[in-house]
Amino acid sequence: MRKWIWKALDEVVNKDVYSNLYLRNHLHEVDEKDRALATRIFYGTIQNYRYCKACWSKYVKNKLNPKMDVLLTMSTYQLLFLDKVPSYAIVNDAVNIAKKINMKYAGLTNAVLHKVKPIETDNMALKYSLPDWLYKMWTSQYGQEKALVMAKASVNILPMYVRRNVLNTNESDFDLDMFVRVQDALYIYKGNDYFHHDYYQKGYMSAQDEGSFEIAKFVDPQENERILDCCAAPGTKSMAMAEMMHNKGHIDAYDLHAHRKDLIENDAKRLGIDIIHAGVQDATEFKSSNMYDRILCDVPCSGYGVLSRKPDIKLHMVPEDMDTLIPLQYSILNNVCQYVKVGGTLVYSTCTMNKKENEKQIEKFLKAHKEFSLVEEKTIFSNATQDGFYMAKLVRK
Ligand SMILES: C[S@@+](CC[C@H](N)C(=O)[O-])C[C@H]1O[C@@H](n2cnc3c(N)ncnc32)[C@H](O)[C@@H]1O
């Protein structure tokens, strides 16, 4: 199992493969009884990468092969964070894997892992494996207390949430031990391997976080309305809205990428939804002869609200990411707003904790578009039980 985890982490850390996609496509290669632990070590290592690496690197003088870097970091994570796993098994497996990388690393691996211990630090960015610049930015934008809550949240193992498909199920179908009702059609799913569960295959449920569900509810779609979801793939919020509309009305669900448009179509089919019309469109220049009752702009963003669920963002993020995202987000909002009916609703949302991508965008938009007024603005901070999201609701006067 550890060899599998090491290979998986090498893909994510050194080859930029997405962690959730890797797991979805490869977790079945692990014995069923080991899958929960493998997942925990895989995500836990990525979430705590900076800290774990700092714990072992003081014992290593020379630069190592990147594969060794991954091996020592994942072994350190297990030694420092997992109580129930015996240390000898962790070290033993690590030495065997090191031998496969290069025989010369066996002794070093053994020596380093016998010495490694937690480091005491006042640096919260290091403690929670964030880049210093992000922690600094959070502190200046949201204050020290919120910054710390968000930093802690980035190393949380969150529960898995699923949305019951109200079109083809009843509450009684979910009256099972593995489902714990949270609100409306949203449940915590306590089972393993969600994609292979019968209920997923039958289109009875979809994975959706509480905050993401909140955004779909915030749009407040009604039966028989015409809705535009202009950054829609993979379609989570479009599907949730279609279910809220009881599959009556019309949703144009567009995305820039053709392969991502297919994800929307396939999921609508799986769920038995036929009011969703998927298409490939660039929302910055999309033209339409239709006007919409509601438009959702769930724009591409830096993702600082979903670091625990998508920890690879922590590995690769640089402040320069914002340089292209911020103008792109604004240009999407600025273009699609013209298709909101008078009296209609425009919702702007992100899964990031960064005021420059959130409140500041809305401030700028309202200054330029006197025909819109702000109805409500909401930030869900990432914390022990959920990811972080921002949403703003505007109405066309
Ligand atoms: C935050 S994700 C959307 C998630 C989606 N709303 C959901 O709930 O499943 C942002 C999406 O915007 C798409 N995107 C990026 N640039 C775009 C553009 N110029 N026009 C339309 N879509 C774009 C990305 O491909 C990505 O799928």
Automatic annotation (TrEMBL):
Ranges in coiled-coil conformation: none
Subcellular location: Cytoplasm
Keyword list, A-Z: Cytoplasm, Methyltransferase, RNA-binding, rRNA processing, S-adenosyl-L-methionine, Transferase
Binding site for S-adenosyl-L-methionine: D255, D282, D298
Gene3D superfamilies per the UniProt record, alphabetical: NusB-like, Vaccinia Virus protein VP39
GO molecular-function terms, A-Z: RNA binding; rRNA methyltransferase activity
Active site residues of this protein: C351 (nucleophile)
Cellular component terms per the entry's GO annotation: cytoplasm
Catalytic reactions on record: cytidine(967) in 16S rRNA + S-adenosyl-L-methionine = 5-methylcytidine(967) in 16S rRNA + S-adenosyl-L-homocysteine + H(+)
Family indicated by similarity: Belongs to the class I-like SAM-binding methyltransferase superfamily. RsmB/NOP family.
Protein name per UniProt: 16S rRNA (cytosine(967)-C(5))-methyltransferase
Designated gene of the protein: sun
